[in-house]
Amino acid sequence: MPDELILREIKSSPVTPAELENIKVHFASYEELFNKRAVKFRSIDSSSFKDVDYKKLLLSDYTFLKRPVLLMEDKAFAGNSKETIQQMSRVLQ
Description:
Elements: H1 17-24, H2 51-60, E1 69-71, E2 76-78, H3 82-92
Antiparallel strand pairs: 1-2
C-alpha cells in the first residue's frame, strides 16, 4: 500500500503542463492518457492525430484525461475500465 495518496481535483484547477509531463513519464504516449469516450472528442477528426495533438487536447480540457490516474514508483494506471480498476484495487490492498 502506498504511503500517501493525493486526490487531485482537475475540473476547477486544470492539469498544468508540468503535471502532465510528470504523468506522461509513466506511460508510453499521451494517447494512453486520452479519454476517447469524452463527449467533446466525438466531433473531432482524430484520424491523423499525432501524440502532440493528444497532449494539446489534454491540456485544453479536463474531460480528455482518463480518470482516475494512479501513479506509483513502479506502476501507473489511467482510466476506469473494469480491468484497470481491478488492477488498481490489487496494488492498493
